[in-house]
Design brief:
The protein is mainly alpha-helical. It contains 2 helices and no strands. Pfam families: TatA_B_E (PF02416). It is found in: Cell membrane; Membrane. Belongs to the TatB family.
């Protein structure tokens, strides 16, 4: 944890034996071990909290990026739809005006030709089919 080698730990142990004494050394070593364990757990908890916060920030950034991309795609689709809609509407208007012109062109001809439901002027006269060749 602290980057101490075995030799350094041995020197620290000898100094502790001399300073603390052989009777209290096991109790002090146990207490130091418990404190070191708590310190390691605390450091690990802080690391995991920091990592969790970093992950949350990364997820939030990813979410923002995805939303931005989705908005850009939506705008692009709307632009494409509009760019396709304009020529289609223009073509529809052209076809409508061409259809109206065709109707106007054909409508005077219909006035000159008799309608199917109206009888011809000559159709009310009966024909003589007696073979005499004269019509009544």
């Amino acid at each position: 944890m602290f980057g101490l080698s075995f030799g350094e730990l041995f020197v620290i142990g000898m100094v502790a034996l001399i300073v603390i004494g052989p009777e209290r050394l096991p109790k002090v070593a146990r207490t130091v071990g418990l404190l070191m364990g708590r310190a390691q757990r605390y450091v690990n908890d802080v690391k995991s909290d920091i990592q969790r916060e970093v992950d949350i920030q990364e997820i939030s950034q990813l979410k923002n990026d995805l939303q931005s991309t989705a908005q850009d795609m939506k705008a692009s689709f709307e632009e494409t739809t509009q760019s396709l809609r304009n020529p289609v509407e223009q073509l529809g208007q052209e076809l409508t005006s061409a259809g109206n012109q065709v109707k106007e062109t054909l409508s005077p001809e219909k006035k000159d030709t008799p309608k199917e439901n109206e009888p011809d002027n000559n159709s009310h006269k009966p024909e003589n089919n007696t073979g005499s060749g004269t019509k009544v």
